[in-house]
Amino acid sequence: MNAIEKITASRWSNWSGSVTSDARFIRPRSLDALCDAVRRASAVRATGAGHSFMPLCASDGLIVSVEDLPGEIRLDAGRRTARVPAGWSLHYLTAELGKLGFALANQGDVDPQSLAGAMATGTHGTGETLGSLSTFARGFRLVGADGELRWCDADTNPDLFQAQRLSLGLFGIAIEIEVAVVPAFHLVERITKMRWAEVRERFDSLAAEHRHAEFFIFPHADSVILKTLSLTDPCEPPPTTSDMEEAGFQRLLDIGVHLPMAVPLLQKLVMRGRFDAERRGPAHSIFPSDRGIRFEEMEYELPRAAGFEALSEMLDWIRRRRLPVSFPFEYRVVAGDDIWMSPMNRGPVASLSMHQYVRQPWREIFAEGEAIFRAHGGRPHWAKRHTLTRADVDSLYPMAEHFRAVRRHADPQGKFLNPHLEGLFS
């Protein structure tokens, strides 16, 4: 097929392998083919790199990737915006922006996700003055449920634009996004080891001192891996890297699968090693780290003031029960925003991520951990594991019903819903 290449794999799967779907999966190579496919479909969801741990992309009808659609960057240097293909990965997009002397103001710690998927779920990095990628959106070109193209921004179809900024893919398939950009910049990354008690005392000052600051803490260890990113003079790109050597970490994880009671000791042994590294380069090459080991993840955004209390309670619970949680927690800070369905729309947050190796049990542990997050006023990252109900959504998001009303207007037949999203937003 020329306009559409049909993927013949037996089923679609997300990155971790925990979400699968037997829906028809297509990669249109022309805009006409995409519009026609959406127009004919009774149920359709878009997918990017499959980095959602929730069944956001699953469908019993059609799953569409727009990665193969033709497109190019249209830069408006004066306005510091660029119209870019929505299906491009952050890795490709930021490299292309760099060639033009521009960059995104912030990124997360991995970059295979599509720009559209990252914005649709509120994906973010760290930095107390920096919001999620959704805050960079300035406009969207969408293929609607009727197969027709629509543009929305703050002036044109403003309600659709406000909902689309963090859309969960409910309003159409984004094919082009106008995104805010900044002049290209360089970063120096420094990784050090610090005692947990000292991090608790100093983190607010570290977050204010550095453009980006975050840390990782194994639940059974007493030290953290602190990572800071600061502006630096132009320099050559660094080699790819990870926050820790993954081959050795993989071996420890596999030992923990067979000997879960050894996990606390293994983590203490890991943290006896040296964590003292520095690298410099263009921002888009410094933000991401290698993440080859598969895991499941739950992430909650908590009021900034509640972050350390929640993390301390999580650590105490895991240590008391000697639970085999093999991955470190990740602690970041994110600026507040005004996006209807954003977990950051009440103000600045502490972002706390809990991971578990895919070969180890995670559902019961996540369920207990989620109760702690919720007790501290947390709201989940939409693409990470959570158990929100429709009632929860209504209690956590005052604009939820208005968001649903815009969805009903844009997609009256519910073409872009799936069973998971129907339970929350039908």
TrEMBL record:
Database matches in PANTHER family: D-ARABINONO-1,4-LACTONE OXIDASE, L-GULONOLACTONE OXIDASE
Top-level taxon of origin: Bacteria
Organism listed in the record: Sandaracinobacteroides saxicola
Record's keyword annotation contains Transport: no
GO molecular function list: D-arabinono-1,4-lactone oxidase activity; FAD binding
Record protein name field: FAD-binding protein
Pfam families documented for this protein: ALO (PF04030), FAD_binding_4 (PF01565)
Span of domain FAD-binding PCMH-type: 18-184
